[in-house]
Amino acid sequence: MEQVILVMEERPETELISIPATPRVSTPEILTPSGQRSPRQGSKEAKSSNAWTPTSFISPRFLSPIGTPMKKVLINMKGYLEEVGHLTKLNPQDAWLPITESRNGNAHYSTFHNLNAGVGFQALVLPVAFAYLGWSWGIISLTVAYCWQLYTLWILVQLHEAVPGKRYNRYVELAQAAFGERLGVWLALFPTVYLSAGTATALILVGGETMKLFFQIVCGPTCTSNPLTTVEWYLVFTSLSIVLSQLPNLNSIAGLSLIGAVTAITYSTMVWVLSVSQQRPPSISYEPLSLTAPSSSLFLALNALGIVAFSFRGHNLVLEIQATMPSTFKHPARVPMWKGAKVAYFFIAMCLFPMAIGGFWAYGNQMPNGGILTALYAFHSHDISRGILALAFLLVVFSCLSSFQIYSMPAFDSFEAGYTSRTNRPCSIWVRSGFRVFFGFVSFFIGVALPFLSSLAGLLGGLTLPVTFAYPCFMWVLIKQPTKYSFSWYFNWGLGWLGVAFSLAFSIGGIWSMVNDGLKLKFFKPN
Question: Rounded distance, CA 472 to CA 171, Å?
């Protein structure tokens, strides 16, 4: 600044106009919340960041002839406006990744995505949990779990922009902000990856087996064609999923999420309505199933509670769905996100509660381990027309295909984040397609190697329970920092540690049930 003043003293006033302005200072490379570099300033995305904002007039060109004190005041004012107004520039690398590539989401998209993620094949086995818990404990556990996960959903929506000017676009990023870089990865990475990749693999198993049964129903007993094997049906379902996965980003699958939500609501309603409208099996009983040893009955009950917990999945996608929405100080993303989530979880309750209560009323303790759809096929396949049964199974296939896309999106995002951080450029169409083909066939081979994955609902519910019920409570205390020993402080710490205790208990119950063959959940009959 002193050199500029000397030049002004030596040259005439007419020559001051020709003094070149101070060149615009390039923004240095920054780190995203996930710890990855932003693209270089010469990239197309970086140039787009020069768009006008309410503070863009406070630029180095504007500040160059102003004295140092005034310059500091304006710079501080710019920083304050950007922080309070959420005008901080986003990392341009986010524009290359599937989750944050498009930020034109709205409350409708939130409803579609949350419904697609919240209602799925895991709801079909809720009556199995009631068979081991009975009426009272079954309804109580389902109601408590629903209210609990709705509260933690609200916490995640609020924490998406807990720090002004910074958005936590992924569950792991929020865990790192709350627990620290290393501990956050250790605590959140395994359960979230297991929920995404494990659910994708389970969807291949369920979808492939449902397609096989659909073919058998449509073809009929007199069919002379050579049917495909179960593994070949897995391959057919995987191929269809890979084709649909070529849609580029999370917002682009909003239409698929709508189809998945509509089909899930439809087949859920069809299954329980058809079940309660038919004559109940003889010698039905509503007493909880138990074994002779009290400890065995306890483990079965814990496994059943794990099934209830597994029914409320999808919290690992809340921040990702909210990241697809625009956000400003006056119009934060949490408003449309919470509005859409409330509508979605109203319909989720309308699916899960009738499914559990109606299924248990229709079949009681004779409910097979495969769930209500297996019971409907086993007890009433001759009483219901083949067309209605085929439609129910076809809707399950459509729902599984749609759910595969939203649960695979975090894995696609991780693959592309690793690629862009190393190459400092976006993925080409061929690279992106290669990642998705690779993920689809890896899930297929895991499903073939571990065909019993669909029977681990209780264990999966225990292992992944902290993502939904425990971690959000801890994050609220660590990030929002409520007054120590206040009601909010006690409430969230208590819920968090209670969730951890339930996670351990449900996992032990699931492992015991698998080892002792007491409760092996199979959604469909094996070959």
Answer: 10
Tell me the chain's radius of gyration from C-alpha atoms. Answer: 27
The 3-state secondary structure of 45-58, one letter per residue: HHHHCCCCCCCCCC
Under DSSP, the state recorded for 19 is S
Task: Tell me which range, 301-315, 378-392, 475-489, is most confidently predicted by mean pLDDT.
Answer: 475-489
For 31, the token pair is 């780190």
- Which residues does 391 contact at the CB level (< 8 Å), separation at least 6? 270
pLDDT attached to residue 226: 78
More confident of the two residues 461 and 124: 124
CA angle 34, 36, 40 (to 5 degrees): 145
**φ, ψ for residue 37, nearest 5 deg:** -75, 155
Asked if 187 contacts 179 with a C-beta cutoff of 8 angstroms, the reply is yes
- Render pLDDT for 378-402 as a digit per residue (tens, 0 to 9): 888 788 888 898 999 999 999 999 9
Range list of β-strands (E), 104-183? none
pLDDT of residue 79: 56
Provide the pLDDT for residue 78.
Answer: 58
Residue keyed to tokens 């849609």: 247
* Contact assessment for residue 461 and residue 309, using Cβ atoms and an 8 Å cutoff: yes
| Amino acid at residue number 5 | I
Let me know: does 424 contact 467? Beta carbons within 8 Å.
no
d(CA 66, CA 411): 50
Task: Return the SS3 of 522.
Answer: coil
DSSP state of 248: -
Query: How many percent of the chain have pLDDT more than 70?
Result: 76
- Amino acid present at 7: V
Q: Which residue has the tokens 């094949």?
A: 121
Higher pLDDT, residue 283 or 211: 211
User: If DSSP codes are grouped into helix, strand and coil, which group holds residue 289?
Assistant: coil
- Per residue in 430-443, pLDDT (tens digit) is 999 999 999 999 98
| 337: number of Cβ within 10 Å | 31
What does the pLDDT read at residue 6?
Answer: 39
**3-class DSSP state of 139:** helix
The label of the residue with tokens 């999808």 reads 314
Measure CA 85 to chain center: 28
Residue 107 has a CB neighbour count (10 Å cut-off) of 18
b/e 263-294 (16+ beta carbons within 10 angstroms → b): bbbbbbebbbebbeeeeeeeeeeeebbeeeee
By the 10 Å C-beta count (0-12 exposed, 13-18 middle, 19+ buried), 211 is classed as: buried
Rounded to 10 deg, the angle between the 294-311 and 487-515 helix axes is 120
What are the tokens at 340? 């859409």
Average pLDDT over residues 66-72: 60
Element (H, E) at 261: helix 254-277
Q: Which residues contact 494 (CB under 8 A, 6 or more apart)?
A: none
* Locus of tokens 């994955």: 453
Are 407 and 199 in contact, with CB atoms under 8 Å apart? yes
